[in-house]
Structures are given as structure tokens and as C-alpha cells.
Design a protein that fits this description.
heterodimer; A: about 500 residues; mainly alpha; two-stranded antiparallel sheet; 20 helices; globular; B: alpha/beta; D-Maltodextrin-Binding Protein, domain 2; 2 domains; 6-stranded mixed beta sheet; 5-stranded mixed beta sheet; Putative tricarboxylic transport membrane protein (chain A); transmembrane helix (chain A); transmembrane (chain A)
Chain lengths: ~500, ~325
């Protein structure tokens, strides 16, 4: 097979010692970026760009890609151990990962998330290897009207991911959308809801909100009962790894997550974060025991953690075959390419095959390396739980705030991280689960932009917009889902009433 | 943030110089800054430290440059330092609050269509647009950006109605063009170069005085050649706050002149798709003044200013 030959050539490029070393360094840094809460992939790569000037271009790119996909491996670590997401893409992992940790299954959760990352990362890579150019073309069929319909249906289906109260979840999602309108509107170029404060023009960065609501918020929650010793059962070595039953429950979500993540990764937007939420929602719906979700269902870790990794592989497709970066992290990767004199795009595969296939082969190798690095680390990380909270949490706070500062080099952002931290703490106290807020924040702008641009494209006719074939299909799926929800709600209500009558 | 210590001019620079990039990591300005960083130590005697301060279409970063006076804070500039104060009140009037050190490169706007579209040249497209007013949608990287200005200039000059679709940056706009959701795109050459080379995108006109030097674009005629008065380009440069000691400014100007005219730097700039175009402090200052006059007229005549003002209410 032709592709197999090319891939073999790629492997021969990627196992040259210098390239292998760059790959190892890349994934090690990536793991660190992922584990440390608040340290953002984009700022980490930006910080390291100057150090790559003297490097061979292939080696440099292999390293940067390594940081990128490596960072999604470690993101779940702190989610599971201390309920603080290491990356925005691991916010949803807190929901079930942390309860698992509380039950003494932290090791299993970490192992499942590492293995899921590996499996899904590889699924994504296979897609990238075999189908990059045709997939990139296919994704272009999605224009603004399609993004609008996806965002709308996504908001409807995903806002009720957690908790018991639909009203509270919807409220959080709406607040998220409202927050997303603050700042310089990217389309009209005007400042909205900034009260003349220049710094607010930037709007709220996803990482800033995630670090505040979940990071600082959880630290505050933990500090309010710092005196209490963590009552985590001591973990025996044997218990570090998943049981057969946990395995069986995880394997399908891993593959499902892998496919979902891959598809989401082809479209513009923060794909890793969006795909993790979609995967969580999907698992909850597919599960035979949805009541366990939120209380340590392993599927809620396996699915999202897999999805965000294959999303990463998929985001490389528009970057490599069209030269179009669809998210912040691929934009900085593009810079890395350009600085080394390489322009990704349709001709990259034919003009620089050794680089293209070398890079892809290195990603296969990097995924294996990440698995090898991460599995033994689980034991070390679980030991961290023995650290008293009043020592651990201030350390986490320092790391989180440093990371938050580094995103825009802005003190102003730090104030907001702390503000959202307090908000997150209070919300938890009164029984609001803040993760739908993140969904609103991420999907709100897509919704608004898609609608504005879509309406211009469709000459201002909303009917023309919603009857485009793909848009209509997506919207019908959404409508069916809402109807289904109503029907189940009515039957439940009806049953309760009948029971009460009797 | 104000720092009143005037640098000791004889020893300057004796510590690393901060170069503020008022846009996010990975954009065109950021790339140019990083190419400067690559050679700074050799020519300036001190490294450059790049700090990205994105937001407010560049204004957050420039406010910081304009408010500093220690000589160790410089900023990357672009055509937005002139455009932004035209669109509304900014904290400083950048063309007068900043002093140019150098201009590095220019980026002319190009007008492209997908290769599957029927229009072989600009003339055919304009004829179609005259018959079907409002049917042609052109994309650009954001309201009030040079791509938008160029598109509106064409519409005015050809007296046709073109509907504008704003996107968030050139990557999303290019994707929408490739997917056939918009028919025309006004963007910088770098972001479509690979697609022009590949034949998926056809270039109809260049919004500059002369044809581009890059062989990929060399055959594309300018708007002027085709009878339309559309000249609009963005550029990248470096500026310092006003009122630095003359010696410091001279040292900076000499140092950056040497970096920019280094053959390797030029090669890299051109590889990124920019037109290399060095201007010294004096020439840059003159350019700022003429551009300011020209653009303030253009944004008024094309109605862009009215649109932005209307939305600001």
C-alpha cells in the first residue's frame, strides 16, 4: 500500500535520534503543561518558540506537536485527584473523575483516561493518515449556517448535562452565553458591555473562566474544610489499575469518544473542550445506568478523555492539508511551522513528504511514549493525595494563577480568575453546577457568529438558512431530542400524578 | 505603568528590550516580531523579549507602549494604529503618541475567488455584480480591517453593491471561501498563497500600486491596471513612545535597520508571504501622515465609518 510505504518512510525519519529526542522532550513538556492547572498549551509553545530557532525544522515541529497532543494526556490528572481541571478540555472529567477518586478509584480513573487517550489519539491519527485531504474538503461543506445549527442543537442537548435541576443548568448556560458577549465583537468590531474598560475588550478567555470557576473555586471549597483529613481509602498497588468490570464499561466509550472527538476536531472552535462535553452527554444517554453519572461513573471519564485526544489529531487535518488553523493551539503551531520556513497547505504533502509523514509518524510514536510515561506516573500522582490539603491547595493556587497570568500577560485577568473563583465557590455552595456555563461561553459566540454570517449569506432569509440540507438535518435532530424530552417528562409527570391519586 | 526614568544614553541598551505585540500569538504581526527576535542579540546587543498583549484591535498593547518612557518598551505597529483612532476615541492618538522606528514589510490585499466560480477576471465579476446587485458576498477578516476597506473601495469605485460578510480572522474567512459559502474574499496574500499555487483559488486583482514580486502572484494585475482605484495595504513596523532621547532612538533605528536588512531576515519575511519594504524613521513618519489623511477620507467615503458609528450607538 502506498500510504503504508510513506508512513514507513515517515517512521524512518522520526526515529532519527534527534527527532526521537525532540518527540520525547515535546511529550514530556506536554504532560507537564497538562498536569499543571492553568498553564496553557498556547503560552507554553509560544514561550518555547525562541529555543527552537537553532533546531532542525523537522525536529522542532515534532517537538511542538508533541507539546500540543501531550498536554491533553495530563489534563485529567488534577481533575481526578483534586477536582481542579488541568486544561479547559478536562473540566467535564471532574464530574465523574473526582468522585471516583473519593471512592479510592483514582488510580483506575487515571489509568482509564491514559489508555483512552492513547486509543482515541491513535484512532484520530489513523483518520489523519488515511483521510486527511478528503476530510478537510468535506468539512468545508460546513459554513456559517451549519455552525449556527450545530451550536444551537449543542446548547440544547448539552446544557442539561449535570445535576438534577434543568432550570439551574439552563440558567448557567444562559449566563455563559451572556458572558461570551462581553468584549470586542469580532464581527462588527465594536466593544460590547465593557463600560469603557479597555481590558474588557478582550472578552473572557475560556481558560480564565475554567481556572476561576473550577480551579480557584475548588481550592476555596477545599480550604473551608481543610481541617478535615481527606478520608480517601489508602490505595494498594493492585488497586491502582482498573478492574475487569471497569475495563468492560470503558472500552465502548473510548471508541465512541474517539469518533466524536475526531468529527468535532475538523470544525472551527475549541474542539477539545467541545468534544469532551459532547462525549460526556453521549455517554450519559447511552449508559444503562445514567443515575451513576456525577457519582463516579467510569464512562464519564473514559469518553471525554478519549474525545479530547482524538479531537487534537483531527485539528491537525485542516492545519496540515489546508493551512487553516481552527483553534488557538493550531494557530501557534502554524507560527512554529512558518518560522521554520514551512507553509502547511495543500502542497505540503507533495512538496515536503519527509516532513509531513515524519511528523505524523512521530505522533504515533509520541502517543506510545505518552502511555509509557503516564502509566507508571499514576502511582506517583495517587501518592500526592496523601499531602495535606492545606499544603497542596496553596501550591495549586500559585500554579493556577501563574498560568492564568501567562495567557495574556495581564494582571487584569488575574482579578477575574479570582472573581470567578469566588463565584464558582458560591455557586457550588448553593447547588449550581457551573459546567453548563462553560458550554454557553464556548457555544454562544459560535451561535451568534453563525447566525449573523449565515443570514448575510442567505440574503437575510431565516427560512433559506434553516432549509439548507445539513442545517435542516441538524435542526431536526435537535427538535426530535426536545420532543423526546418533553414526552418522557410528561409521562413521568403523569405517572407521578397517578401514583399520588392512588 | 508610567516609568519616568530616562535611560542613561551612553550605555543603552544594557538590559533586554521588551517588544510588545498587540495581537495574539500566531498572527502575522507575531510572526514578524519573532523573526526580529531571532536576530536581535547580534544587532542590538541585547535580546528582545516578546510580550503578547492582545485585545481591543491592538489598542491595549499600544496604550502600554505609548504610556512607557524607559526606552525598553517598544511595540509592533500596523495600519491599525491609524485606523483605530479614526473609528472612535482611543486612549492615545497613536500616530502622534508613538514614534516610528522602522517599517519592515507590507501586505497588500488581494481579491480572490474559488476556481469553480465562472468569473475569469475582475471585469466579468463586476458585470455580474451590476446585473445582480447584492448577490455577491465578499468575506474579510473583520469589520474595519484592510480587507473590509479594500472591498468597500471596490464597490464604490465600480459602483456596484457587494454584500460584506465579516469573519473572525483570515483562516475562517478562507475556509468559507473554499467551502463556497462566500464568493469573493479580500485577504492578505500569505493566507491564500498555498491555495493559489494549488489552483483551488483564483486571484483577480491586487490592491497595491505595483504587481507583487512573489512569483505565485506576479501575474495578477492590480486594481489600477483594470481601471479601479483600489489601493489598500497593511504593513508591519516598530514604534517607540514619543520623547525618547535622540541618542536612544538613533541606536534603536540603526539596530533595527541592520536586522531588517539582513539578507536572511529578508528571505524569511518573503517566505511568510510579506512584501519586504524597509522604511527608516523619517520615511515611516511621512507615511503615517499621508496614510492618515488618505484613510480618514476612505473610511468616510465608503460608508465604513457610518456603519461602525451606527453600531456603536
Amino acid at each position: 500500500m502506498d500510504i503504508l510505504n510513506l508512513l514507513l518512510q515517515g517512521i524512518s525519519v522520526s526515529i532519527i535520534p534527534v527527532n526521537l529526542l525532540s518527540c520525547t522532550i515535546g511529550v514530556l513538556i506536554g504532560t507537564l503543561v497538562g498536569v499543571l492547572p492553568g498553564i496553557d498549551t498556547v503560552s507554553a509553545i509560544a514561550l518555547l518558540l525562541p529555543f527552537s530557532y537553532g533546531m532542525d525544522s523537522t525536529a522542532a515541529l515534532i517537538m511542538f506537536a508533541g507539546i500540543y497532543y501531550g498536554s491533553k494526556y495530563g489534563g485529567s490528572t488534577t481533575s481526578i485527584l483534586i477536582n481542579v481541571p488541568g486544561e479547559a478540555a478536562s473540566v467535564v472529567t471532574c464530574l465523574d473523575g473526582y468522585p471516583m477518586g473519593q471512592k479510592g478509584r483514582a488510580g483506575a480513573a487515571l489509568a482509564i483516561s491514559a489508555i483512552g487517550s492513547f486509543i482515541a489519539g491513535t484512532i484520530g491519527l489513523i483518520g489523519l493518515t488515511l483521510l486527511a485531504p478528503p476530510l478537510a474538503q468535506a468539512a468545508l461543506v460546513f459554513g456559517p449556517p451549519e455552525y449556527f445549527s450545530l451550536a444551537l442543537v449543542g446548547l440544547i442537548l448539552l446544557s442539561r448535562l449535570t445535576g438534577t435541576s434543568a432550570l439551574k443548568s439552563a440558567l448557567m448556560a444562559v449566563i455563559g452565553i451572556m458572558l461570551s458577549t462581553i468584549g470586542l465583537d469580532s464581527l462588527s468590531g465594536i466593544s460590547r458591555f465593557t463600560f469603557g474598560i479597555d481590558e474588557l475588550d478582550r472578552g473572557f478567555d475560556l481558560s480564565i473562566l475554567a481556572m476561576g470557576l473550577f480551579g480557584i473555586g475548588e481550592i476555596l471549597t477545599a480550604m473551608t474544610h481543610a481541617e478535615a483529613k481527606p478520608d480517601i481509602p489508602s490505595v494498594k498497588f493492585r488497586d491502582l489499575y482498573p478492574t475487569k468490570k471497569e475495563w468492560q464499561r470503558s472500552i465502548t466509550p473510548m471508541f465512541r469518544g474517539g469518533i466524536v472527538g475526531f468529527l468535532v476536531g475538523l470544525l472551527p472552535g475549541p474542539a477539545a473542550t467541545i468534544s469532551s462535553f459532547i462525549s460526556y452527554g453521549l455517554e450519559k444517554r447511552c449508559s444503562k445506568h445514567p443515575e451513576e453519572f456525577g457519582h463516579g461513573a467510569i464512562e464519564g471519564v473514559a469518553g471525554p478523555e478519549s474525545a479530547n485526544n482524538s479531537a487534537i489529531s483531527a485539528t491537525m487535518i485542516p492545519l496540515l492539508s489546508l493551512g487553516l488553523p481552527f483553534c488557538g493551539a493550531t494557530a501557534i503551531l502554524l507560527s512554529g511551522f512558518m518560522i521554520h520556513g514551512i507553509t502547511p497547505g495543500p502542497s505540503l504533502i507533495t512538496e515536503r513528504p519527509e516532513l509531513f509523514w515524519g511528523l505524523i509518524a512521530s505522533m504515533y510514536i509520541g502517543n506510545v511514549l505518552l502511555l509509557i510515561i503516564n502509566l507508571p506516573l499514576i502511582g506517583v500522582f495517587v501518592q500526592l493525595l496523601k499531602t495535606p490539603l492545606n499544603i497542596l491547595m496553596p501550591l495549586v493556587a500559585v500554579v493556577t494563577l501563574t498560568g492564568a497570568y501567562s495567557i495574556n500577560n495581564s494582571m487584569f485577568d488575574l482579578i477575574w480568575v479570582i472573581f470567578f473563583g469566588i463565584l464558582g465557590f458560591l455557586l457550588q455552595r448553593v447547588g449550581f453546577e457551573p459546567s453548563p456555563l462553560i458550554i454557553g461561553l464556548v457555544l454562544g459566540p459560535e451561535l451568534e457568529r453563525g447566525l449573523t454570517q449565515g443570514l448575510i449569506i442567505c440574503n437575510g432569509s431565516i427560512w433559506a438558512l434553516i432549509t439548507r440540507p445539513i442545517t435542516a438535518t441538524i435542526l431536526s435532530i435537535g427538535a426530535v431530542a426536545i420532543l423526546y424530552n418533553f414526552v418522557t417528562w410528561f409521562t413521568k409527570y403523569d405517572n407521578t400524578r397517578k401514583e399520588l391519586d392512588i | 505603568m508610567e516609568n519616568k526614568t530616562v535611560p542613561a544614553t551612553s550605555k543603552y541598551p544594557d538590559k533586554p528590550i521588551t517588544l510588545i505585540v498587540p495581537f495574539s500569538v500566531g498572527g502575522g504581526t507575531d510572526l514578524v516580531a519573532r523573526l526580529l527576535e531571532k536576530r536581535a542579540l547580534d544587532y542590538l546587543g541585547q535580546p528582545l523579549v516578546i510580550v503578547n498583549k492582545p485585545g481591543g484591535a491592538g489598542t491595549i498593547g499600544w496604550n502600554e507602549v505609548a504610556g512607557s518612557s524607559d526606552g525598553y518598551t517598544l511595540g509592533m505597529t500596523g495600519v491599525e494604529i491609524i485606523l483605530q483612532p479614526l473609528y472612535g476615541q482611543t486612549k492615545y492618538h497613536y500616530p502622534t503618541a508613538l514614534d516610528p522606528i522602522a517599517q519592515i514589510a507590507e501586505l497588500s490585499i488581494v481579491m480572490v475567488v474559488q476556481d469553480t466560480q465562472p468569473w475569469k477576471d475582475l471585469d466579468e465579476l463586476i458585470r455580474y455584480a451590476t446585473k445582480h446587485p447584492g448577490e455577491i458576498k465578499f468575506g474579510h477578516g473583520g469589520m474595519g480591517t484592510t480587507g473590509h476597506v479594500a472591498g468597500e473601495m471596490l464597490a464604490k469605485s465600480a459602483d456596484v453593491r457587494l454584500e460584506q460578510v465579516p469573519f473572525q480572522g483570515s483562516a475562517e474567512a478562507t475556509a468559507s471561501l473554499l467551502g463556497g459559502h462566500i464568493q469573493v474574499l479580500f485577504t492578505n496574500p500569505a493566507s491564500v498563497k498555498e491555495h493559489v499555487k494549488n489552483g483551488t483559488v483564483r486571484i483577480l486583482a491586487v490592491a497595491s500600486e505595483h504587481r507583487l514580486k512573489d512569483p505565485v502572484f506576479a501575474n495578477a494585475p492590480t486594481f489600477r491596471e483594470q481601471g479601479f482605484d483600489v489601493v489598500c495595504s497593511s504593513w508591519h513596523g516598530i514604534a517607540a513612545p514619543k520623547d525618547l532621547p535622540v541618542e536612544v532612538k538613533d541606536k534603536l533605528a540603526k539596530g533595527f535597520e541592520a536586522i531588517i536588512n539582513d539578507p536572511e531576515f529578508q528571505k524569511n519575511i518573503e517566505a511568510l508571504g510579506f512584501e519586504f519594504s524597509y522604511l527608516g524613521p523619517k520615511e515611516s513618519q511621512e507615511k503615517w501622515i499621508t496614510e492618515n489623511q488618505k484613510l480618514s477620507k476612505t473610511v468616510q467615503e465608503t460608508g465604513i465609518l457610518d456603519k461602525i458609528k451606527a453600531q456603536k450607538k
